[in-house]
């Protein structure tokens, strides 16, 4: 039962579909499949958060653009004044640019890669101007898309901002700020370890294991009615105090969502504001965004900051460009340059290479909930399952935002046809 | 169980609180009571749609501004271009204007009436300019508020628009447009009878009766998981086909929410669009509204058009002013003047006087889901429980929008200190 409750609204579920056997992007187009269309929709076209059907491919391709049709949410208000308007100078050459996918000797065009990756939306900024912008499937220019774990990057950036401002001391511990965390794994974990996910946690995100802790976390955050036999925690925070330590903090990068949720809790405790409010006030409004974003919430109104954000693509691009411009955007210094410098300097590569990413993303690092490639362009990214990303290439003065609904959750399936494609575009833009 | 399921998300529940014994507006201020405040909120400050606590006074005073924090919703997108900006010329005299509440010999000031009515927001337009605008409790200028049955007026207006355009024939029946309705009470009810709620329906909205049909309707539309023993309809439309006839259509006004929901279904069937989409395209965007509104939805994504709309106060005022100006607003003819004329001419007063409103609202009528006062100013209104209204006084060139969270649902408790107050303001504005 716990598993079912968790499954219901888990945002980054590992869908057990082999993409090789799945419908293609064109075949799985939501408009073609007719999810939730008709008055009323036919019974077999109704998808729901209750039975988890909304998060199974290909229904997922519809749901990612309509998360709040299935779940309670809270606003991240966009700007109401000083809205930013991008300049657009489309580059017709990009579609035919080619790159070599990882582990392949067959060049692929950029345009081909979009369908291969079940892209719902993609936008490329070069020197701050839109040079490429496409919408597929269910995504509309004025709509939103689930950001999945790109959500983490916003919480991490807000946490790092508070460190820069001296509101948080990165050497203090979770328990220093939230006494309730004292007996949990976060009790003696420092803010820095939490921000960089080098905490040692007894916490498995192995979805194939019914006893994995992820299910208990998900059940706690599930906003729908619990079964009468359920006696576990009833919101995210009540779950976080139960997390136990495993190993030593500070040594190994362990990509675990609950670090973000505990970071969100600490931020809210010290500022007295929810992450939704803070993200709106400090970032979304100053950027001049156009479309309200939103977080899914648990039964206590607490946002799922580890994965529950949905936002508009151009608004996401504003955020990426602001970071690329060292915190300055829309005629304001929104974040201090030192914060961006800290992200770009990266995290502990040694700790990263001891993680499960040691092969696929060798020599990368993780800092303030950003992924740092340490490649020759100094590229870094926000990344979420099913293909979500904000990819920033400082040398190429390029920002890419991608929303996608790839049949499988793991980015390891998507990276081979996306990361080399981004790098190829970057090299092309430099050469222009 | 059916009752509990229904109770959960019912939007126009008759809260059994005697306002005389309730906390005052000041005492029940949500910020003071701390609903959903804190990280996490204290257990006794957590309110929820699941147990119905979000809709009980005084928690209701918080929830009305945050409905989507508790329930799945669907957008009514605001304008993204040509946004309308009101001119503001505040009139300082309004607060001290006095009126005589119904059945009272003690004059009350306008300002006093606001607290008496648990006003969350109130806005007065005179000749299109804002002359009065106040926000109380949880409502913020850029926020939204539950419109309750004011929602009906939007569906009714869209239905009447389709009649004006010849898309719907007001003499055809529900079954002519939706064959599935053939064996229901709506099968032989005309579009006109549905729009004016003169249908004869075996349908009770008596909340004190556990067998009242309202509970079955609510259970069907409840987006949360049903109990395993539940075998009733699982969305609004599947319920509507089960409604049985009682009496004769066309003779008596019977204010029953399901007329609106069936009207919404008919509109969607003939246009191929949801009410959310249509309201946005045909009205909300042309008006130049600023804030996305939203409808709560059932498990099939169908909006609760009979009562589930939430919107921004200034945006509501734009709608009211557009109607007052015979359909023209923001430099566009948004609705045909003939439609507004049809509303203002009113409905069948004889049918109205045979309803439960024959005493309290003697000689009023109901047309296209608007309430027509037939007073000497020709005033007419959209009305929702707990004190929601858009009140239009053509002679005074006045539009009032009120959002409120009165402890009791019934407007009969609120009318004595609001309707005479509106009329007093109208007379003052005429005399200015």
Automatic annotation (TrEMBL), chains A, B:
State the source organism's domain of life.
Bacteria
- Which residues belong to the signal peptide in this entry? 1-19
Catalytic EC class: hydrolase
* Residue stretches making up the Beta-lactamase-related domain: 122-407
Q: Which residues form a coiled coil?
A: none
Query: Which keywords does the record carry?
Result: Hydrolase, Signal
Q: Which InterPro entries match?
A: Beta-lactam-related, Beta-lactam/transpept-like, Diverse_Enzym_Activities
List, in alphabetical order, the Gene Ontology terms for molecular function in this entry.
hydrolase activity
| EC code | 3.-.-.-
The protein's name: Serine hydrolase
High-level lineage = Bacteria, Pseudomonadati, Bacteroidota, Cytophagia, Cytophagales
């Amino acid at each position: 039962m716990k598993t079912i409750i968790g499954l219901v609204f888990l945002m980054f579920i590992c869908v057990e579909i082999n993409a090789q056997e799945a419908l293609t992007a064109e075949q799985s187009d939501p408009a073609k499949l007719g999810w939730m269309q008709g008055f009323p929709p036919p019974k077999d076209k109704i998808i729901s958060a209750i039975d988890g059907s909304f998060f199974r491919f290909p229904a997922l391709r519809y749901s990612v653009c309509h998360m709040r049709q299935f779940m309670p949410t809270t606003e991240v208000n966009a700007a109401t004044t000083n809205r930013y308007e991008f300049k657009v100078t489309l580059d017709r050459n990009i579609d035919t640019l080619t790159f070599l996918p990882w582990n392949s000797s067959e060049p692929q065009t950029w345009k081909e890669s979009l369908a291969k990756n079940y892209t719902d939306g993609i936008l490329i900024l070069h020197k701050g101007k839109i040079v490429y912008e496409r919408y597929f499937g269910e995504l509309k220019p004025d709509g939103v898309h689930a950001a999945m774990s790109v959500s983490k990057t916003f919480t991490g950036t807000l946490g790092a901002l508070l460190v820069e401002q001296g509101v948080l001391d990165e050497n203090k511990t979770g328990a220093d700020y939230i006494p309730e965390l004292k007996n949990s794994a976060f009790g003696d974990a420092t803010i820095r370890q939490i921000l960089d996910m080098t905490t040692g946690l007894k916490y498995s995100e192995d979805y194939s294991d019914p006893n994995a802790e992820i299910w208990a976390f998900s059940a706690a955050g599930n906003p729908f009615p619990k079964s009468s036999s359920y006696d576990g925690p009833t919101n995210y925070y009540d779950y976080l105090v139960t997390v136990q330590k495993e190993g030593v903090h500070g040594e190994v990068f362990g990509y675990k969502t609950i670090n973000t949720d505990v970071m969100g809790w600490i931020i809210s405790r010290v500022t007295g504001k929810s992450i939704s409010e803070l993200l709106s006030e400090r970032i979304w409004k100053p950027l001049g965004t156009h479309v309200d974003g939103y977080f899914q919430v648990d039964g206590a109104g607490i946002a799922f900051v580890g994965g529950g954000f949905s936002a508009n693509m151009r608004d996401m691009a504003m955020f990426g460009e602001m970071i690329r411009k060292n915190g300055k955007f829309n005629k304001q210094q929104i974040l201090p340059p030192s914060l961006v410098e800290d992200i770009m300097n990266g995290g502990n590569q040694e700790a990263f290479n001891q993680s499960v990413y040691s092969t696929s993303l060798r020599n990368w690092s993780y800092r303030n909930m950003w992924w740092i490639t340490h490649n020759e362009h100094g590229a870094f990214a926000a990344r979420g399952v099913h293909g979500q990303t904000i990819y920033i290439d400082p040398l190429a003065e390029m920002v890419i935002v991608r929303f996608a609904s790839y049949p499988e959750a793991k980015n390891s399936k998507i990276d081979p046809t996306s990361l080399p494609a981004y790098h190829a575009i970057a090299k092309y833009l430099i050469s222009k």
